[in-house]
Each structure stands twice: as C-alpha cells, then as structure tokens.
Amino acid sequence: MSDTDNFLDDSLITTETTAPDSMAADQPMGGISDRAATRQARELSVGERPGTLTVREDSLAPRLFLISYDEQFFEEKEYTSYDEMLAFFHAHPQQRHWIDVRGYGDLPLMERLMQDFDLHPLQMEDVLGDYQRAKVEQFDDNRLFMVSRMTEFTTLLEIDDDQLSIFTGPNYIISFQDDYDDCLDTVRIRIRSGFSKIKQKPVLYLAYALTDVVLDHYYPTMAAIGDYIETLEERIFKGRADRRVLNRILHIKKDIVRFRRLVYPEREKIAEILRMPDDVIPEEMKLYFKDCYDHAIQAMDLAESYRESVSSLVDLYLSDQSNRMNEVMKVLTIISSIFIPLSFVVGLYGMNFQREAPDGTINRLNMPELYQPWGYPVLLSILVVIVAFQLIYFYRKGWLSNR
Amino acid sequence: MSDTDNFLDDSLITTETTAPDSMAADQPMGGISDRAATRQARELSVGERPGTLTVREDSLAPRLFLISYDEQFFEEKEYTSYDEMLAFFHAHPQQRHWIDVRGYGDLPLMERLMQDFDLHPLQMEDVLGDYQRAKVEQFDDNRLFMVSRMTEFTTLLEIDDDQLSIFTGPNYIISFQDDYDDCLDTVRIRIRSGFSKIKQKPVLYLAYALTDVVLDHYYPTMAAIGDYIETLEERIFKGRADRRVLNRILHIKKDIVRFRRLVYPEREKIAEILRMPDDVIPEEMKLYFKDCYDHAIQAMDLAESYRESVSSLVDLYLSDQSNRMNEVMKVLTIISSIFIPLSFVVGLYGMNFQREAPDGTINRLNMPELYQPWGYPVLLSILVVIVAFQLIYFYRKGWLSNR
Amino acid sequence: MSDTDNFLDDSLITTETTAPDSMAADQPMGGISDRAATRQARELSVGERPGTLTVREDSLAPRLFLISYDEQFFEEKEYTSYDEMLAFFHAHPQQRHWIDVRGYGDLPLMERLMQDFDLHPLQMEDVLGDYQRAKVEQFDDNRLFMVSRMTEFTTLLEIDDDQLSIFTGPNYIISFQDDYDDCLDTVRIRIRSGFSKIKQKPVLYLAYALTDVVLDHYYPTMAAIGDYIETLEERIFKGRADRRVLNRILHIKKDIVRFRRLVYPEREKIAEILRMPDDVIPEEMKLYFKDCYDHAIQAMDLAESYRESVSSLVDLYLSDQSNRMNEVMKVLTIISSIFIPLSFVVGLYGMNFQREAPDGTINRLNMPELYQPWGYPVLLSILVVIVAFQLIYFYRKGWLSNR
Amino acid sequence: MSDTDNFLDDSLITTETTAPDSMAADQPMGGISDRAATRQARELSVGERPGTLTVREDSLAPRLFLISYDEQFFEEKEYTSYDEMLAFFHAHPQQRHWIDVRGYGDLPLMERLMQDFDLHPLQMEDVLGDYQRAKVEQFDDNRLFMVSRMTEFTTLLEIDDDQLSIFTGPNYIISFQDDYDDCLDTVRIRIRSGFSKIKQKPVLYLAYALTDVVLDHYYPTMAAIGDYIETLEERIFKGRADRRVLNRILHIKKDIVRFRRLVYPEREKIAEILRMPDDVIPEEMKLYFKDCYDHAIQAMDLAESYRESVSSLVDLYLSDQSNRMNEVMKVLTIISSIFIPLSFVVGLYGMNFQREAPDGTINRLNMPELYQPWGYPVLLSILVVIVAFQLIYFYRKGWLSNR
Amino acid sequence: MSDTDNFLDDSLITTETTAPDSMAADQPMGGISDRAATRQARELSVGERPGTLTVREDSLAPRLFLISYDEQFFEEKEYTSYDEMLAFFHAHPQQRHWIDVRGYGDLPLMERLMQDFDLHPLQMEDVLGDYQRAKVEQFDDNRLFMVSRMTEFTTLLEIDDDQLSIFTGPNYIISFQDDYDDCLDTVRIRIRSGFSKIKQKPVLYLAYALTDVVLDHYYPTMAAIGDYIETLEERIFKGRADRRVLNRILHIKKDIVRFRRLVYPEREKIAEILRMPDDVIPEEMKLYFKDCYDHAIQAMDLAESYRESVSSLVDLYLSDQSNRMNEVMKVLTIISSIFIPLSFVVGLYGMNFQREAPDGTINRLNMPELYQPWGYPVLLSILVVIVAFQLIYFYRKGWLSNR
Question: Which residue ranges does the record annotate as region Disordered (chains A, B, C, D, E) (predicted)?
C-alpha cells in the first residue's frame, strides 16, 4: 500500500520530480495518447509468422523455480540448470509440482519447455507475446491453458499489467511470467505453511489459487486508484488545478477503462471454466471458481464506479475552469465599472472651457462649478457616493463574496 | 421520512455544519471520488485466502434474536447465549424459526453457526465480507442462500447500503446483517400481530417477505433522493449555486448510479428464483416473487429517471454558470460602452491647443469651442444625448432587463 | 387537439399565467427534479404488506358503468348500486358485458369485485397501486390481466399518464381506471353504433380494441409534444430564450424519456400476447395484436425521434447563449478599441509640458504641436482616420454585421 | 444528382431564397423540431378504427399501370379504367404481371383492389397509412406483403421518404405508392429491354428487383448528404458559420438518425425473408436477398459514419464559436493593454500640480519634468518603448498571429 | 514504419505542404465530412443491376501472378497472357497454386476468371465493387469466398483500406485486389523460403496465412495512429493547437471509428469460420483461425482504446482553448485593474477647480493638494503603493504565474 500513500500527502509535485521519465515538467506524461497500446500494437506487429516462437528483445533472462509438494512432502528451489530441475521433477512422480518460470529471454529454453511438456506452439506464442487477453483453452482432452493479467498501480501513477500464463498437467502446473516480482507470494507462503488446503487438493486447486490471487490483487489496485482520484479531486477543490491535473484525470480515466477491459475477459474466462464438463473441472472446484466469478464482477463494478467518478472529475474541472474565468471577469468588471465613470467625471472637470472669451466677455455658463468655493469637496463627495452605490449593487449581486 | 425533510427547508448549510465529518467547509465531501468504493476495494483486498473466515475489524458485536412461531405459537427473544438459543431451537422442531443475527464481530460464534447449520465456508465468507452483490444460490438440494442489499438515504445526504444474508432451512431461516437497526421491523410486527399470512405459510414465505421488504424500502430511499434533487434544483434557480452545489449534484449522481447497480442484481436474483424448479420454489410462491420482480424493475426505472434528472441538473448548472458570466460581461460592457466614449469627449476638451501662438498670432482654428458662451452646456447636452442613445440601444438588445 | 393549439400562438407566457401552480414566475416548475417519480416512489413505499389491498387517499369515488351487448342486444347504464349491476349482469348470461369501473376510492367495493370475479389479490394490488408498468398476465388457465398506460399531454405542458387495468372473463371484461374522463370513448361510440365488429366478436376483441385505442392515443400525445418542441425552437430562434426555456426543454426531455419507458413495456406486453398459445389468443386475434405491435414500435420510434430533437435543442440553446456572450463582447471590444486609443491621443495633448521654463528659456521641443495654427483640425482629422481604419478592420472581420 | 449539386457551389444562401417555404430568412426551417414526425403522429392518430380503410386527404388520384410480360411477351400500358385493366389481366393468365398503383386517393378503387386480390384489411390499412416501417408478412400460405421505404435527398436539403408496398401473387405483384415519380424506373427499363433476367424468372424475382432498387437508391441519398456535410464543413472553415449553420447541422443530424431508423427495419425485413422456408423463398432467390442484406448493412454503416461526422461538425462549430470569442477578446486585450497604461502616463503629466505655491514659493518637486527642455520628446520615446515591449510580449504569446 | 516517423519530428506543417491535395493551407482536409464514405456511396449507387459485372473506372489494369508449389516444387511468375497462365495451371494438377490477380480494370478477363473457376456473379460483383465488408461465404459445398480489408496509415495521415478477396478451390486459391503493392509480401517470402509450413499444408492454410497477415497488418496501422495521436497531444501541450489541430483530431477520430467498423466484421467472419463443419474447416485449421480470432479482438480493443484517447484529446483541446481565453482575460484584467484606477487618480489632479474665484476670493478648499510642496512626490508614492497592493492581490490569486 506504500506506493499509493505517497500521493496522499500534498506532495504531488514532489512525486513528479522523483519520477522524472514520466512526469517531467510540462511534457505530457504519455497521458492521453495511449503509449501502452501503441507499444503493444508495435510488439504485436513484429511476429507475423503464426506458430513461430520469437522472444521480445526486452525480455528478462529466465529464472526457474520448482515447488514440489504433497501432503507430507515440501521442497522449493531455484534451479540454474533446466536439466537438473527436469531430473528432480521426473524423480518425483508421486508429488505435485509447480514449475515457476520467470522471464522469457532464452528462446531455446522456451522451446525445450514447449516440447518436454507438450505445449502447443500457438499457445507458447501467446505466452511469449505477453499481450494476450485473459482466456482459457482446453487441450489434450483435459489439460488447461489459462492466461491471467496481473495489475498494479505503479509509482508512475498508472496501471501496469503483466501476463501470467498457466498450463496444467496431470501432477504439475507450469506458470510463465516476464517479471521476477509478482503478486503470487501469498500463494507460495500458503504452500510453505504446512496446513494449506493447496497441499491436500489436486494441482487444479493450485491453478485456481493462482487465478484467485490475481483477481484479489485487483482490489488493492482499485483502492490505490480510488486514493489517487481523491487526491486529484482535492487538488481541484483547493483551486490548484492546472491543465496538468486535467491531463492526469484523462490519463487515469484511460487507465480505468483499460482496466475494465482487462477484467472483462477475466470474467468470461471463468464463465467458460464454469461451463466446462465435470471431468475437466470437478463440481467441487466449480464452487471455488464461482466465487472467483463473483469477484471478477465486483472488480468490474468498482471499475465502472471509478469511471463514473473520473468523468465527474472532468466535469468538475471544466466547471472550475469556467468558475475561475468568472472570477477574473468579475474583478475586471468591478474595477472598470467603478473607475471608468469616475474617470469620466474627473475628465469632465479637466476640460478647458473658458469663462473669459478672447474678447473679454464673461461666459458664465462655461463650467461655473470650477469657481465655486465648495466645488472640489462637493465633487469628491459625489464620487464617494457613486462608489458606494456601486459597491452596494455588486454586493447585492454577490459579486464581492468569493463564490 | 424525517431524514429527508431537513433539507427541504433552506438550511442546507446548517445541515452541513451538523455533519462535520463529511461536509465541512470547503473540503470535498468525498463527493466525486468514490470513497465507499475505495473502502470496499480495500476491504476486499484483505482476505486473500479463499474459504477462510475473517471478520472485518469494525464489525459489531453479534446480537442473537430468535422468533419462533407457528399458527398458534409465538415467542420472540434476544439471547445472550448461543447455546441457550440452540437448545430452545432444538426443543421446538414443530415450530418455524427465524434466527436473526445482527453483528458479525465474533468469529468463533460465526464458525459455530456455520457448522451447526451446515453453511458453506465460501457462502459464510460472502456473508462476513459484507460487500456481496445481491444473489441467490441453491445448496444442499433445496436450501437457498440469498443476499439482498438494504439501502437508506442518510442524513449525510448519500445512499448507505447494508447487506442482508438469508439462509433457508427446512423449518427455519437464518438472517445475517452487521447492523442493529434495520428496515425489517415491518415484518417483525406482522409476525407478532396474530393474523399474518407469514404464520400460515412455510418459512420460504418469511424469506420472501424479508426480500420484499428490502425491495419496498428502495422506494423511500428514492423518494428522499427525489426531494434532495428538488432542493438542489431550487438552489440553482435561486441563483445560489456555487461549486459545492455542483459537487453535490455529481455526488448524488454517482450515488444514483451506484443504487442502480445495487438493484440490477436484485432483479437478476429474483429472475433466477423464478426459473428455479417447482420443488424448490412452489408455484404459489413464484406468484409472490413475480410481484417482487415487478417492484425491482420499477425501482430501476425510478433510478433511471433520477439519473436523467441529475444529468439535466448538471446541464442546468453549467448553463447557469455561463448565464452569470453573461451578466457580468453585460454590466462591464454597458458601463464601458457608455463612459469610455464620454471620457474621450471630455478628454478632447481637456487638450491644451493654444489659441494664441507664442508669437502672439491668434489661431482661430485651435479649439474655438472652448470660447463659445454656450460651449459647456451644449457639450453636456451632447453627452446626455449619447448616453440616451446608448441606453435605448442596450434596452432594445434586452441587455438592461435581467434575463 | 385544443390542448396543444394554445401554445402554437406566441402566448407561451400567457399559458404560464393560466397555469399558476406549475409555472409561476421564477419558480422551477418541478421541471428537472422528477416530481412524478418522487410521488410514485412515495406512493409505492406506503403499502408494504404484499397482497393487502389499500386505496390511495386521493382516489376518486368509484362510478360503475355496464355496457351489455350482443349482436342484437345493447344496453349501457351507470349504476349507483353494485348489487343492482351484479343482478343485471347475472340475469344476462348470454350477453357480453363490459364492466367499467372508474375511481378506486371505495375499498369494500373493490374487495367485493375481487371476490365476485375471482381476481388475485396481488393483481388487485397492481390495479389500485396505479403505478404498474404495462404488462399482461395469464391466470385461471385462459383469463388475462392486462395493464395499459394511457397518456395525455396536458395544459401544464407535461405528459400525464393514467393506468387502465383490464381483466377478461368468459363473457365479460372488467376495466379499472382512477379517472372519470378517458380516451376510450371512441370504443364506446363504436359499440353503440350498431355495426361495429366488436359486437360480432368475443370479448377478447373488446379487450384488444381498448388496448389498441390506448396505443393510438399515443400519437396525439406525440403530436402535441412535437408542436411544443417547435414552439420552444422558435423561442430560441427569436432570441428570446432565457433559462426558463432551458428548464422547459430539460423538462420535456425528461417527459419524452419517461414516455419511451411507458411504451417499451407496452411493446413487451403485446409481444408476450403474440407468444401465447392459440387457445388463449386465437390465431385471428393475433393478426390484430400484430398490428398493435407495429403501432407500439412506431410510437417508440417517434419518441426516439423527439428525444433526438430535444437534445439538439439543448445544443442550440447553449450555442445561442454563447452567441449572445459573443455579441456582448463584440460591442465592448469595438467601443473600447475605438475610444481607448482616441482617449490616449487627446490625453497626450492634455499634458502640461511647458514651452517656457521657469527661467524663461523657451523649450521649443515641448509640445510644439499645441502652438501650430492648424494643430487642432489636423488632430481631429487624424482621429477620424484612426476611427475609419478601425471600422474597416471590424467590418472585414464581420463584427459589425449582426451574426 | 442535380439536386445535390446546387449546394456544391457557394450559393447556399441563394438556395435558401429559392426554397422560401422551408428556409426563409431567420425562421427555423423546421430544423430541429421534427415536423415530419409530428405530421406522422398526427396522421396516425386519425384512423383509430382498426381494419377500417381511410384515405389521407392529401393522397393523389390513383393512376394504374400494368406491365405484362413473359419471355416472349411484353405489354406496358396506363389504364384509366380499372375494369379494363382487370379484363386484360384475366385474359392473360399465362403471363406475369406488375400492377403498379400510384396514388391512393380513391377509396372505392382501393377497396376493390383489396377484394379482387384477396388482400387483408389490416395490410391495406398499412398501405394507405403510408407511415409503415419496412416489413414483410407472409399470408395465404406463400404470398408476401412487403413494405419498403424509398428515400430521396430533396432540394429542401432534407431526406424525404415514401412508402412502397408490394403484394405478391402466383403470377403477379401489386405495388402501391402515393407518388407519381419514383426510383423504380431502372427496373421498368430493364423489363422493357428484351434481355433482362426479370423476364426469365418468376414474379418473386421482380419483387426482389424492386426491393433491391429501393435499397440501391439509399446510396445516392447518402452521397448527397455527404456532399452537403462537406459544404457545411467548408462553411465553418471559411469562418462564415452563424447559427443557421448550426441549425442545418442539427437538422441533417436528425435526418441521418431518421434515415438509420428507416434502414434498420429494412435489414430486419430481409433477414426475415432469409429465414423463410424454401417453398416460399427458393434457395436461389435467397442468394439474391443475401446480397440485399449486405447492402442494407452497408447503408447502415454509411449512415453511422455520417452521424459521426455530423457530431464532429457540432464540436467543430462550438469550438469555432469559442475561437471567435477568443479572437474578439484578444483584440480587446491587446488594444486595452497597450493604450490604458499610456493613457495613465499622459494623464499623469496632465495634472495641475503647481510649481509656484500661492504664496510665491517655488515647489521644485512638483512635476519638474514639465519644465525640462527635452521632457516631451523623452516622454514620447518612453511611450514608444512601452508599446514595443508590449508588442513583443503579445507576439511571443502568439496573440498577434491570427490563430 | 517510415510513414509514421515523419510526423514525429515537429514538421507537421511541412508534412502538410508535401501533401498538397489533402491538407493545403486553410482548406479542410476532407476532415470531418466523410469523403471516403461519400465516394463509397457514389460508387455503390452506380451498379444498380444485381449480378451484372461492372468495373469501376479508376480500376488498375490487371496483373496476373501465379505461385505454384508443393513440398518439392516452386515456381513464381507474372504472366502477361491469361491463357498461358491457365495452361501452366492445368498442366500441374498435382501442385498447389495461388492465382494472384492485382487490378480489376479488364472486364472480359474478370468474366473469364469467373467462368473458368466457377465463381458466382454476385460474389464477383462483391469483388469488383471493392467496398464489401469482411465476410465469408461457403459455396459449391466446401469452397470458400472470403473478403478481408487491408488497412494502412498513409502519409496523408489517414487510414486507407483496400479489399482482398479470396476464393478457395480444391488445389488453388484465387486472390483479387485492386492494388499492385500490398501487405502480403511476408507470405510470399515465406513460400519462397523452402521450409515454410505453407508448403506442407493444403491450400486452406495459405488462405489462412493471407487472412492472418491482413489481421497482423492492423497492428502497424494502429501503432502509426498511436504515434500520430501522441504528436497531436504534444502539439496541444506546447500551446500550438489551432483549429486545424482540432480538425485533425476529429478526422483521426472518424478514422478510428471507421477502422473499428472494418475490424468488427473481420471478427464475425472468423467466428463464422470457426462454426463451420469439420469437413470444410478441419479441426486443426480451426486452431489457427482461433488464433486469428484473438488477434481480431485485440485489434478492436486497441481501436477502442485509441477512440477513448482521441475523445480525451478533444476534451483537452477544448479545455486548452478555454485556458487560453482565461489567460487573455487575465492579462486584460491585470492591466486594466492596475491602470484604470491610476488613471482616475491622475485625472483627479488634472481637474481645473480654481483656487481663485473670478471675484478674487481664494477658495482654499479647491484642490489645495496641488499647491503643497510635496504634493507630486506624495502622489507618486501613493500610486506605487496602490500598484504594489494590486500586484500582491493578483499574486495571491495566482494570476501572475503562468497557469
């Protein structure tokens, strides 16, 4: 939760300077133009040969983890050698195994995994492409290929999403992701702790547990977004919203919409699992997946709710902008309305109409006020009265209060 | 209805000061950023172990009520001891019972209830999580697990919703809620009064009656919202709408949308009940649930109607803002247009062109007006005429009336 | 049609003054806040006991009409005594009867009707609640309970809707409405005239004819709305649109949306009738109901069309508001741009730089213009040229024309 | 295409004056308020007796055409006497016939047609009502009743639509329309020319050809709308968009939406034809209707595309309006910002502070500048510098360029 | 990717001048009015005779390519004589062939192709019309007719789309397109290279490969659009957005919506292929098409994402426009508010109230300030203080910073 806390204090600007690449100064932060989408489009346009494995250039070097367990047994190890891991795996046919591959950056290794565990090239392509929507596919009769998308609200104030691909086998599952740190640690901890249900149930339960933990991780993401929206709202309310705030609003709006589009296929995926025959997904497991289904719907409801909030923020921002314009105009109007008439009056008595004509006759009608003993004080009083009336008028209109 | 009345008088500001935590001064009242959603997201992200009961920290200490009845029999009592209640329950197998649990804050008790009444851990998790959408699940052949959401329009001027979970059994229902006060009292009163249909029918009718009363309670919520919208509209019409009013409009809009999202699954739930086989829901009961279904649709229609109204309020607010700007500009324009030309004229006759050149020659063309005997009065008359023409012009344009 | 004509002349303001309760002066006319919805919500929240008849307080005292007919026979009478009517009814088992109940304000009578004609309490509750959406229910094998909503565009410039409930029996129909005047007179006239198809066909045809006449009555309602929208548009075009006009636009928009929501279930109702088995609705009758179905769709299309028009009106209003602002600004700009520079120039020659220094030396550079014989006329000419150039500039920009 | 060309030149205003009834001066051109819909609503509310034929008052006097043909035979004639036509028709039972009725204004003739060709009263009512959506109905086992709507973009710059009703029979079709000129001439020409497929195929093919030609006629309508939208866009771009342009935009938007609503049931109609059993529509004919189906979808896509364009035009118009306001404000700001400070400076040296006090003492501090020999030239230089700085500032802001 | 790079530098204006026909100066670039749609509508309205082949006038002269291959064999050649090609084709019945027709501009050749390969006239009409949505049709039992739309983001900064039509046969496919350059080269290269899967599989795989490559080509199109949107966003952020930028935004928005409408039937097409029986599409091929299906959905997701971005750009533009207005007003307000009061003050002391009345009496109250020795310096100090206060006020309001 610490990621989201540091914008709860009022140091949004500070946060920006510590995240130089995305939020520097006046540059757009890839705000509205959907850079993630563009990157994705570009990646997807690379591998044009169907069923041919290619690894994206920025993929991490793979790290192999193996968690082997049954009700009594437990061993967890990171292997540097794939063969060593495979040997251990084959040596324990009675145990259940979780082969946990993090990083795709070694094409030959990926191809060996594909062959050793009978994965389909098109599925493996989906794994390595890293931009696959959540889905489930049934293959080899009763094996499953499941893709989930893990989300995180990053310090760059945007939603980051990573792909988790899971293949099930008779006594193992293989999971792939291109990230060393993930949100699956709660599952690992539960396996390590002796009493978890995971140990007592078939590997499908482990696959379920991983799917469920990904779904559950949507909530902190949403909560962080909720906090962020609150910060933005406060910012507008304190009258400190400039167009960078609008940019952020539009940015997070886009992210929320994207999030919704991430979760939607997740729901479809689980609905499809629930429709699968009982020999693939036993009735008892369906009860658990039904629970997942409820969670997915709730996540979508939340996303919908935030989308609504963000749309309202845009309205609020625009109204605020208009409000400030109003205020500017009011200052101009008040000052002009008071002083322009006064200027006229004093200009009037700055005229040079001559009491004495060139021929010496006296024009008594030419500005006699100027020669009255009380002329000047009377005029000043009149000016004061004018101002007073105007101020009363503006006060009544409510223009003097700071609405 | 008293909750909604106190904003019908014009004391909206007073209402605010009496609700300091949510509406203080200039602070946003959690208006647009959906704090309820954020809280929900945070709660939901806590319990990550599926099927493991946890109790939210702010849960109330449980209070146990038992209403036992048949056509002749009636007993209603609050029990401090669960065992005592259970004893009474088992001692009356011929009667029908309503076990009414209010407050979740005692995990062991919750677990005992779960075991004694054969509730599924995942269902119990839904109960305690308190953020479950309305749904119905059939379990153990013909038992039902039903979740409803009870709504209320609070003095904080927002919609509050609580969860009511009902399990049916052969001769009992168990209801759970995390609130001591609820909207179910009308049902209790009907049971107490001797002649209620509830007493004559199986417990399913009681479950129906509770579902129905929750649905019926949506209408006063809606009516309160309707009154509130009317207050906001009047506020705009009296020209007293500042941005806090906009905030409230956006806030209530969000709440209405949320309300609609609450009711929608309620409708789905009842539709699912209507599709259930006749041995679970007898034909006669379906007639009653069909009535519920109509009510749910009507509630959604109302919500839709209010959503439309609130959207129009936003339009009205923005137009009003623009109107006020218009008014400000008109004042500026009228005053400037009148006095700036006048200032020029008086400035003209404030110039110092000399009739007598330094060499003593007379320049008769240099401002001869200044030496005319009627110069000043004629000028004043001209000024009056200019002003009169301008005023006529502005009057014709309709700028002087207060449109 | 006379209701709609009186706003076709330009007497909208007059119309207002004759409808004091809804359109007085500056008060909102319950415009945007959906008072009808609020009233409905409040009504619906009253009767919380399902299946218990209650009568709304403002219900009219019932009036009973009986039209009895067959191909030869015809008798029409208003009965003050229910028993008398029932006696006549039972005395003519060979005839077909239309029992026409107008006004609900007599609970015992309603209960007797319910018992004598075997109506279900829940259905009777729908009748008396008066807020039921259009629907059809099949009961007692082949009897029908049909609810229609009759609409009218009132002199208050809003859509009023009333409920018409029809029960069919073997040789009679009973209709309920809480209004003495209705739109069913065309049907009554057709029965009275000897040659109507109604007399030759079973009572179901009468039920159809009533349903059809309600649907047909949607068109004059729509036509009146269309005329009203036209009036509003003209109002905007004549530049006489103030915010009350916006209020009306938003009000009628809301009403149109509500109308659409009234008609939609009407369509669903007829679709359900068309799906009913042939022994309930004979094939021949379905042809007639199919015609109704087309009419319902057409009414929805019209409503949709008007909704679009009204949305455009809002756009037009807002643009008009912006236009008027533009005009105000142009006046300000033209006058300021012309006179502020002129004021500077005349101010320039109002300066007091002295040709003669205190020590008597002549500063020939200090404003020599003031001493030229043609100084003043030349300056005036220059001022005229400046103004001319500015006017040409503004003319070219098109700011002088009244766009 | 000539209808659409005359707004391609810049003579939109001319076009207006030549179409006085719809576009005169400042009057709304029935723009936004949907007069066609209102007329339709009013028409539909007239005939309230189902199955009773009535003819609209403005119906044309009927003209009867008969085209009779088979592979060898061809005869085409306008008949003034219905009996004569019927005689010819019955005398040629081996040929195929197209009875082409244009104009409905003769009720007895319509009734005779109905009886002689076994048409259903409700269908005939749909024909004469002239406001029926596109639909198809199967009657008398394998006869069809098809309604199409023909569209045209008129010189009044709006979409006009007429109804074409077709009944099929064993060796004839009857078509009804209330217009002497139509878009079916291409079909007639194809029959006249010896080699058309129409002559070789059963009459259903002729019905198809008529349906297809109506659909194909949607494209020139759309093309004309496209040209018109382009004209409107250019108008905005040349800065000559006043609110009449907005009115037209909103008007054409409404028309496009209406067009879409016309085409949608056309698609549904063809889809229903495709679902009909093979003995009604032979497999070979379905291939042709499938082609129609594609065309209907394409027409809807085009309409959708134009709707999008028109919405963008509204955005563009509003932005343009705002732009012009901006420009007005910039002129005001630049001129005011330059001359108001200058006016202050020259006003400063117009003050009358006296060097010589009344008692004769010299106040050297009172405006010594006025007595300097270079005072005036130095001041003028300062003024020039101030103006230069301001101009540079405004240039840098880009306010001087005409953005 | 080079097409998209040249707007990444800041030479958007240059790009315009190099594309004179579409983006010249101030003329609209066919921006909002959908010229492509209009062209399409016009084309479609030409050929009104169903099943009659016509070739559009601007069609290219056809070029014929034949690629013949099996696992061992490969020959690729452009034929100038159709007969020669046909001879080669018939001489190699054991090989698989790709007949690649580019350009439609030779009607007799098209008709020969239609007859020699048993293509249906209506299908051939779809090919030559060039505006067919993506679709698949099964004909002659198990042959397929597939239409795809190939997209490209052109240097004119809009999406161009071309039609690719494919007919399958037992051992050949025929592809039609009206363009010499296409996006299918990757497939050709793969066939040329010895080891492609295409060589090992039946021709259906080739048809799949072509479909897939078209789909994959959507991604670079999308990526180019993404880059373009980014450029537009930067443009707004640098404050250099004039209405041409808005035009571009609305233009690209329209294009994205059109793109979405292109891709949607593509998805439907593949869904239909997946539903085809196994003897038409073998199970193995369906796996590949399933992959296509995922890609189509992803392309639609991307388009949706960009549509959202572009909508946000419009918001940003409008807000920016409003912002600039704000800025203009602030400059005006600050300068006016400072100098108008000052002008009044100096005007005050420019008045000519006379100390000495005409009769020689001294009016001590008439502007005694003017005779004080420190009068002028004190006044200047007061003016400085007023300005200082105003600047502080404006600074506090934040109007001096460049928000």
Answer: 1-30
